[in-house]
Input
Amino acid sequence: MRRLIWATVFSLACAPTAWADVARPETLDDTLTLMRDQFVGDPRVTSTNIDLEQRYISFQIGDGPLQISLPDTIHSTLQNAADDTAREKALVQFIDFTISASQSAAPEAALDLTQIYPVIRPKGFGVEPIQPSFASVPETGHFGEENEEEQSAPVTLPFAADMEIFFAQDKDQVIEFVTLDHLAQLELTERELLDIARKNLQARDWDLNIEGGDGLHIISLDGNFETGFMLNQSFWQGVDVGLGSIVAVVAARDLVLFVDSDVENAVENLRTLVDPSINQFPNPISTTPLVWDNGVWRSID
Output
């Protein structure tokens, strides 16, 4: 069975031994290309693929699980590094850390139901196959039989518009998506898993901040579970007391924005902010405004 996993923590405590120079990346696509080249050059990695639309790299270590690496943290590091040599050092360390953290995820370990939370992602996230990038990958493919492929797909439920609910286990340095195979092993239905994940979300003591100004509000958390708060009904019921009609956009993995639509031009300003021709966010999810309607999110378009 393969799993969808991504590293969430990066430390410069790693110790690679050789450096070359890396030019400052101007865009996330530039950073993704640099990451891919580094993954390709690591002998532990047997395949890798860039998704430029959703801005992540999927990779495989040996015949292990499908894993995901996100560019936003290392992109900021590379842009702010002192020089090209420092950029190369940071890039090599980041990829080494990502691979090492993924290897330590213990794929054989059972899921901890108390650490599973809902997250929102675009429809189809994580289900496209990795394209072989090395001569060592068999021509017959690297994921096994079709049925195994289906079972290793992430569990999803409809959310709203162009988004779906996914389920992720917080494993400290990595995040792991719940797959259909997991669900069968746990003998749970999708709805039962959703109930568990929502209860976990509401029971956890999150270090939550609401930032922003001039009528724009931003949910700030840990960079991984902001989107899950779209499913925290008690939170939005509390927000609803102080605002009129709530409209939100799940703009990116770590960016949920909301406004009071009763305020003049608030929704129009929100649309402008998330317009990809004006702002490009790492790991974008949606530009669709959603209105909070009696405990349910629905598109206003």
User: Anything to note?
Assistant: The longest helix spans residues 84-103. Helices lie at 28-40, 72-80, 84-103, 146-151, 180-186, 190-203, 233-242, 266-274.
